[in-house]
Amino acid sequence: MTNASQDTRKPSFWYGLPVGYVSLDLHPPAERLMEIVHQLRGLPDQQRDEADRALRLYAGIVSLLNTNRVQECALGVHPDDSGGFTTSVFTVSTMSTAGNSAKLVVAGLAGSAADGRNEGMRPLELPCGVGFLSEKRSPAPRSSRRPESGDAAPSHIWQGTVAVAVPSAPELIVLQMVTPDLDSADAYRDILLGIARTLTFTDPARAVALDEDREPEALNGAAAAMRNDFG
Hints:
By secondary structure, the chain is of the alpha+beta class. It has helices spanning 30-41, 45-67, 102-114, 185-198, 204-211, 221-230; strands at residues 2-3, 14-15, 21-23, 70-79, 85-96, 121-126, 129-139, 156-165, 171-179. The chain has a 7-stranded antiparallel beta sheet, with helices on both faces. Strands 1-2 form a two-stranded antiparallel ribbon. Helix 4 (185-198) runs antiparallel to helix 6. The two termini are 12 Å apart.
C-alpha cells in the first residue's frame, strides 16, 4: 500500500493502487534533476528541444500539484476493447475544512447527496468511515500556448471525486480520478471506489501482523480491503 503522508503531518494514511498505474515523483531529488539536465545537453538539437519542453512541463505540473497539496499523482494506462489504450490520472490530496469538524462537513455533504439536492453526488459507507462520491463531465482544458493542439484533444473529460474525513483533524482526504474516455467512466468509477475502500488510517504493516495471528476467515481491516479489491 502507498503511504500518502509526505511530511510530518499526522495522521498518516494509506491506500492501494491497482495494476496499470505509475506514480509521478512529486518530490524529485535535485541530483536526479541535474542528471537529467546533463543528459539533455548531450542530445541532438531537435531531441534536446523536445526533451527540454517535456522536462519543463513536468516541473510545472509538479509545482502546481504541490501548491494544491496533492500528495500522489498516478498515471493509468489500460487496454481497451478496440485494441488501443485508455488513460486516466489519479490524484490524492488533502483539503482543509478551515477549523470545522471534517466529519460534520462530510456528513452534511453526504446528507445533501442522500436527499438528492446535489446532482451527481451520493454518500458512501467506507471501511475507514463516511464519505461521499461526486462525479461530473466537464469540458477538457485547452492549452493557451498551443491552441492548434486542441483539435486532437478530447472535448470533455469524466471526473470522479471521493472525499473522506481525517480522524481528529480538520481535513478531508480527496481521491480524484480523471479520464478523457467517457465510454469507460463506469469502469473508472469502479476503480476509484476500489481505491477508496482500501483507504485506511492504520498502518497496514500492523494490520497484517495482527491478521497473521488470526484464522484466514477472520482476515479483516486494511489487509482484507487490499485483498478484496486488488487481489
